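Quick one: structure tokens for this chain, please?
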Amino acid sequence: MRTSIFLFSLVFVFSCETEVKNVDSCGDSLIDPSEQCDGAELGGVTCQSLGYYGGEAACATDCTMDLSGCVAAGRCGDDVLQEDTSEACDGSDLGLTTCESLGFYGGSLACSSECSFDTGDCESEGFCGDSEVQSLAEDCEGSNLNGQSCQSRGYSGGVLACGEDCRFDHTACLSVCGNSVVEPDEGCDDGQITSGDGCSADCQVEAGWSCSGSPSLCGTICGDGMIVPGLEECDGANLDGLSCEAAGYYGGTLTCTGQCDLDWSSCESAGRCGDGLVQAPWEECDGLGEGESCLSMGHFGGDLVCDGCVRSGCLGLMAVDGGYLFTCALDHQGNAWCWGLDSNGQVGNGADPGSRFPVAVTMPAGVHFGVLVAAKNAHACALDASGNAWCWGLNGSGQVGDNTTTDRTVPTAVLMPASTSFLQLAGGAYHTCALDTTGNAWCWGDATYGQLGRGTTAGSFRPVAVTMPPGVTFSSITAGDFHTCALTPTGVPYCWGMNSQGQLGDGTTTQRLTPTLAILPQNVRFSDIDAASYSTMALDLVGNLYTWGGWALARTTGSHTQPLIAQMPASVAFASVQGGEFHACALDTAGAAWCWGDCNTGECGTTVFTDLIRPVAMPAGTVFTGLGLGAHAGCGFDALGALWCWGVNSSGQLGDNTNVNRATPTRTYWP
């Protein structure tokens, strides 16, 4: 019907507006009664005049209208929504619009003949703002609150309002936190206004908690991955950053139980410091066992502690040396210890009349020693880190070097030569000598036999320079009771002082007031030298022993005025040599000790009580890293600092807390 009307209208338009002629002829540009158009003559018809939104009309060869250009532009009623036109819809094409998208609560949207929305069915379902409360979609409508109030909504008070979305606006409603009633704005209300119990001070459920009921009962949520401090140690995989290693264990895997408690069992199986078990290789100790001490651990002494499962407090040794009936040692921290006879203050602690075990020397404030010697009689000396000398004990001949003859009971500073530092020390019976950093020798004390080496028998109460041979320097120095010897860097020996037993090695028994060259065996050079009271001994470059003077010769009885090779044990080479009073000892390259000389009172560390003219080994297994000999006694220490002494013990000089002579090495005592 709609199409018929359109065609009638088209014919009517054409008939009314077209120039008329009596004969039909299509193509003459005149619209005849039977023609809709003719050529370019369209009779004033356009796409727009026909209701289309655009395009261009044309005339077909049979003088009918060609509207294909108009149809492409579209028009209302073609069931196609033209989005760039005034159409909201077109027939069944509503785009994406629905009643709900237009704000209605339901219904079926339609399209009118004018291509606009027909919302009649939508309006039957209602919308916010229609003054009616739609019970399924709205709380309220304007001032119509549907009989509700803040109180009916569960609040304690306030003014209820209706929002623009027709939902209740509770902004002006009031909640009272802490009244044991869970109100709408509250996650919980346990009747308190404090946090930390699951329901916060503003009545909200705290993280890691769950709350239920009114008043609220709250509990932690184990398994939510959130740790509640004070109530949960962990939660699932959340271990609060802890691990076995972070807690000090040596391994294992820390886990969390279903009750949110940490499970340390795997860690504990790996162990840690403080569990009472020594876990190798991480621990040296874990507490101290019964009877465990520095002494039992093989050290010189000290107070053993187990701190952080590492042992500390024990003392090793750097040096030991013996004088007449007393002994001194230097620990690895640079502190001196002495024991035995203290007739002239040689123990060095300022007051003790003597001790049968090591006692600490009273160290100068801030000073630590690096070199220590106990002289042949009753004084001792040491060097500090700066090369300054300190001495104590007998000082009747000025051997302490403080420019007095007053005995000193604690270490006393030697009056050092200007701009001079010492590297080595040597102590005789009543004199002391040192080497400085340039290889020059200095001596002080008694010079009755020329042992100070400065060309006179006049003593000195402070260091004086030895008269050095032209072009000669020394690399080591040693002292007997009344003589002194030194080695050059090339291993050549020089000696001076008393020579009654040939101890200077120059082929004579003539006293020498200055350094005198000893007679060297052909093609021999020495690597080490030391002196006993009246003899001297040295090692050549391959470890053979040479001796000269009286006693402690390890060759034959009697005296010898020049170096002679000793009767060496088969396949043994010595690494160091030490002289006592009338005996001497050496360490071989394996650390075993060998002794000779006057061994009648156990001073050679063997069960042989006689004079020995060749080195005899101490009991098997006796291995030392250092030796020090005194009058009729000797001591040696091992790598850990354990100190062993033997020989005469009349004044406790062996340090074993007795006065019993010892024929073999015996451990010193630690109080």
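The longest helix spans residues 2-17.
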